[in-house]
């Protein structure tokens, strides 16, 4: 079986994590894109800068196989992740969901395009993930959770059952979200926080129990 070509948008550390999660029997990385002129994260793969670089690459890329894409924009920048995914989709590149060989996705879980379930992460029964969601290393999303488009659950975070996390929110490394809590769109949960009650949209919380430390606009 010939591995299918795949490009990665985002040229920093998360790109390396993505490549490690790919099954090399099915995917081979042929190009990396970033908005900045930086070294490629891979010695064997060229990096192109911005949409101009993408246009140059796509003009010269082989057309015999459909090239897929993956967005390697981590952190709390869910909006950029979604915008980039939409751009790649508009250019005819499908965005497969990537599940690391040690990751777990329950048979009853549902996910949109472009999700990433990374090493030792778990998505449990009846969970629903939107598009371009990251469940990062050793993070877990328990039963019946609803996770919106562009959400990032950072390494080691624990999201208990029946939690709702709205579009582009971010749950930081090692944070814990207790059952039936709702986290609003664009909210940020700080590393190690314990969320015991709802978090409004675009509010940053931290601590145990988590309390607001900043309100966005």
Automatic annotation (TrEMBL):
Source taxon at top rank: Bacteria
Active-site positions on this chain: 143 (proton acceptor)
Alphabetically ordered keywords of this record: Acyltransferase, Repeat, Transferase
Ion transport in keyword set: no
Binding residues annotated for acetyl-CoA, in chain numbering: 152
Chain ranges of the PglD N-terminal domain: 6-81
Family note: Belongs to the transferase hexapeptide repeat family.
Name of the protein in its database record: Sugar acetyltransferase
Organism of provenance: Dyella psychrodurans
């Amino acid at each position: 079986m010939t591995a299918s070509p795949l490009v990665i948008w985002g040229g920093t550390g998360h790109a390396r994590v993505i490549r490690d999660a790919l099954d090399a029997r099915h995917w081979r990385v042929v190009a990396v894109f970033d908005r900045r002129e930086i070294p490629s994260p891979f010695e064997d793969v060229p990096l192109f800068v911005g949409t101009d670089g993408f246009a140059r690459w796509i003009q010269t890329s082989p057309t015999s196989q459909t090239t897929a894409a993956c967005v390697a924009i981590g952190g709390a920048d869910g909006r950029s992740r979604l915008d980039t995914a939409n751009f790649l989709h508009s250019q005819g590149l499908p965005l497969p969901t990537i599940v690391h060989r040690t990751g777990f996705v329950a048979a009853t879980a549902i996910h949109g395009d472009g999700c990433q379930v990374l090493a030792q992460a778990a998505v449990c029964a009846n969970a629903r993930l939107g598009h371009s969601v990251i469940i990062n290393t050793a993070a877990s999303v328990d039963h019946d959770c609803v996770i919106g488009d562009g959400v990032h659950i950072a390494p080691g975070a624990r999201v208990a059952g029946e939690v709702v996390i709205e579009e582009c929110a971010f749950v930081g490394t090692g944070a814990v979200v207790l059952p039936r809590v709702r986290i609003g769109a664009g909210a940020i949960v700080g590393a190690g926080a314990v969320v015991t009650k709802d978090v409004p949209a675009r509010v940053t919380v931290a601590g145990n129990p988590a309390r607001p430390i900043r309100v966005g606009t």
